[in-house]
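Changelog-linked ticket: magnesium ion example.
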Amino acid sequence: MEALRETYEGLFVAKPRISTSVEVPLSRESKKILNRAVDEADRLAHKHVGPEHLLLAMFAESEQIRAVLEKFGVTGAKVESYLKSDVSPEASSAVPSVRWRPFLRAGIGYDLHRLEAGRKLIIGGIEVPFDKGPVGHSDGDVLAHAICDALLGAAGLGDIGTHFPDTDPKWKGANSLKFLEHARELIAAKGLQISNIDAVVIAERPKLGPHFCAMREALAKALAIQPDQINLKAKTNEGVDAIGCGEAIAAHVVATIFG
Ligand code: MG
């Protein structure tokens, strides 16, 4: 606990109340946590706000932070019991020393679908007007599938086939954004957050650039992130192979997550 106290010494402050009028670069969530920490100190009749109050506030306000801290064996009950006890930090094993060690994980995703006439072309959750569309069990959204695989890979959660087998009738014609929503939930349950996604979609036709803005919005919504965390690029295959002949569409994706 002493190590934690030293690490966060600068946070021992005399109960500031963070409001929207304070001009500091804090996110809304950070302000919410700081205010909650002040409330926790008030509730316990403590004069100052320390890291333990911040821990309590984070437990209360952020499911993702709670999941990470619990991995270190820290629970809200242990922190509160420490705060209420007179036991010296050296003698107490209630709250182990916590050090935040953010780490970045990368995942790669790839997908390809054959294109056939008369099918809807869904890419990145958006219908793109074209005379051909992907052959697939779900809606055949090549970009959503590659993103899903990249995210699952980064989180060590297998691949899209593990979670949404194409033998399951439940996923026949499914909107692939549902796969992304599920991947997001699995990632959050592990206490991880999506950092960024970079993708290349390879198709000879149609031109995809004009649809990227709508795709990024749709994908970001499904993943509960901001569109600027997603970068999309379009390539042709220079007229060669199946993609170049307009018989297939493919996507490559790299995603990073942190926790
Ligand atoms: Mg696919």
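Closing comment: Example verified and attached. The pocket of magnesium ion is lined by residues 111, 113, 136, 142, 145 (CB under 6 Å). Strands lie at 104-117, 122-123, 126-127, 132-134, 193-202, 230-235, 248-258.
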